[in-house]
Design a protein that fits this description.
Elements: E1 8-10, H1 23-29, E2 34-42, E3 45-52, E4 55-56, E5 67-73, E6 76-80, E7 84-87, E8 92-95, E9 101-105, E10 109-116
Parallel strand pairs: 1-2
Antiparallel strand pairs: 2-3, 3-10, 4-9, 5-8, 5-10, 6-7, 6-9
């Protein structure tokens, strides 16, 4: 089992309505190995950017909300108790509420996540 990585999680809504969201500029500014930033809110959901250079996120679940992952760059690995899913650029996957999962990378990856605005990224 790999060593737990320190997480840099920012729940503040970085971009409000009617603002240009430049993902490339945000990605370039990231120095943390495991970075998560809420980009914007859409109705009752948030869109988050993940920039993951190395490591893994701990096993967790969200009891009340589903979670959608979409890869922009690199390879992103989702694990459940049942399977391992390797997502490539322009691929997505939804983890339903209540499913124990973790995410990890073996190479740098940039992803978008969409989930209910009340979701705690670290799980319940």
């Amino acid at each position: 089992m790999a060593k737990k990585t320190e997480y840099s999680i920012h729940l503040d809504n970085k971009f409000g309505f009617l603002q240009l969201i430049d993902v490339n500029e945000t990605v370039k500014a990231v120095t943390d190995p495991w970075f998560n930033q809420t980009l914007t809110q859409v109705n009752d959901c948030v869109v988050r950017l993940g920039v993951f250079k190395k490591g893994e996120f701990h096993w967790h679940k969200h009891d009340e909300e589903d979670e959608f992952f979409f890869v922009l760059e690199g390879e992103f690995i989702l694990e459940t108790e049942e399977e391992e899913i390797r997502l490539q650029p322009m691929q997505g996957y939804t983890i339903p509420k209540g499913v124990l999962h973790r995410t990890r990378v073996e190479q740098p990856a940039v992803i978008l996540m969409m989930e209910g605005s009340g979701v705690q990224p670290t799980g319940n």
